[in-house]
Design brief:
Elements: E1 3-9, E2 15-21, H1 40-49, E3 53-57, H2 61-69, E4 74-77, H3 81-84, H4 96-107, E5 114-118, H5 128-142, E6 146-148, H6 156-164, E7 169-174, H7 180-183, H8 193-209, E8 213-217, H9 221-230, E9 235-238, E10 246-249, H10 251-254, H11 272-288
Parallel strand pairs: 3-4, 3-10, 4-5, 5-6, 6-7, 7-8, 8-9, 9-10
Antiparallel strand pairs: 1-2
Helix pairs in contact: 2-4, 4-5, 5-6, 8-9
Length: about 300
């Protein structure tokens, strides 16, 4: 129970005390602030205010324009392009050149969102100098705002080298798709305390190194809460529950284009697979029956 007493001064040095009981106090303001341009500092400010961070993927100019116009805070040019754009089973095949191509397309469309680009598998893990070269290429050639890498202590030197060059870095812990053959499955990670403790330690390390945010993928919600409360930088979850400071989804999944993909964490907001299929079928029928183009649709 919260009790608030308001003292009102009245004439003749008397006072009137008004007591409100059971008033709900909001210590942390969750008012949404309007940003003309979202930056890494904006995300930290959002966490401090308790405002959740929205993040979606985009891989091309047309989709990025729509996502940015909808005022998504962060656009991730993810190596998931390997899956949804190129049709590969994993994220491993996509190359640095291909990531730069997708990122360049997105950056030409974006006016407001912070754009984060995945450094692809094999471009940063083994050699900190190679990691720096890859990050510099992404920043210079695509004009990206920041990069993302997967892993904790094992890539610490690479993260440090990139950050020392002035390039903002977003971390990624939990299920790390670039290590899928090590895990052997896409099941929930860090259910056991030993792995959970390592994940927390890695999150704290990434914060100390200077990362501005961390993606947490497919871990228990309670662990997400522990991580989010133990670090000052934002956590952005995918399949990590409601306690993350923000959420991210693959745009093709959100729109229902990847109809065969149905993880528990996914909320579909459209069923574009069926809607697009229906529209295309109608077009084919109109062409076959000579209904398209009609007199009004020709010169």
């Amino acid at each position: 129970m919260n009790i608030i007493k308001i003292i009102i001064h009245q004439p003749l040095n008397s006072y009137k005390i008004i007591t409100f009981i059971d008033c709900k106090l909001n210590i942390m303001s969750t008012a949404k602030k309007e940003y003309k341009r979202v930056t890494v500092k904006s995300l930290v400010d959002m966490k401090k205010r308790g405002e959740k961070i929205s993040m979606l993927t985009a891989y091309d100019y047309s989709m990025a324009r729509i996502v940015d116009a909808a005022k998504v805070d962060v656009i991730l040019v993810g190596d998931s392009a390997s899956n949804v754009m190129a049709g590969y089973e994993t994220t491993l095949p996509i190359t640095l050149d291909q990531m730069i191509y997708h990122a360049s397309s997105v950056l030409r469309a974006v006016k407001r969102a912070l754009v984060v680009v995945d450094i692809p598998f094999g471009s940063y893990q083994s050699d900190p100098q190679e990691a720096l070269r890859s990050a510099i290429r992404i920043m210079k050639e695509s004009r990206a705002h920041s990069v993302k890498v997967e892993g904790g202590e094992e890539i610490g030197e690479s993260v440090k080298r990139i950050l020392n060059a002035g390039i903002p870095v977003m971390g990624h812990l939990g299920l790390t798709p670039q290590a899928i053959y090590k895990f052997g499955t896409y099941t929930v990670r860090a259910k056991e305390e030993e792995e959970a403790e390592k994940l927390i330690a890695d999150a704290k390390l990434l914060e100390r190194l200077g990362c501005f945010a961390i993606v947490l993928e497919k871990i228990p919600a309670e662990l997400t809460k522990r991580v989010s409360e133990s670090i000052s930088i934002p956590t952005i979850g995918i399949g990590a529950g409601k306690y993350a400071d923000g959420q991210v989804l693959v745009i093709h999944d959100l729109l229902g284009m990847t109809h065969e993909f149905n993880p528990r964490f996914l909320r579909r907001y459209m069923n574009l697979y069926e809607e697009m299929g229906s529209a295309i079928s109608r077009y084919v029928d109109d062409v076959k029956t000579k209904d398209f183009p009609n007199d009004d649709e020709q010169y």
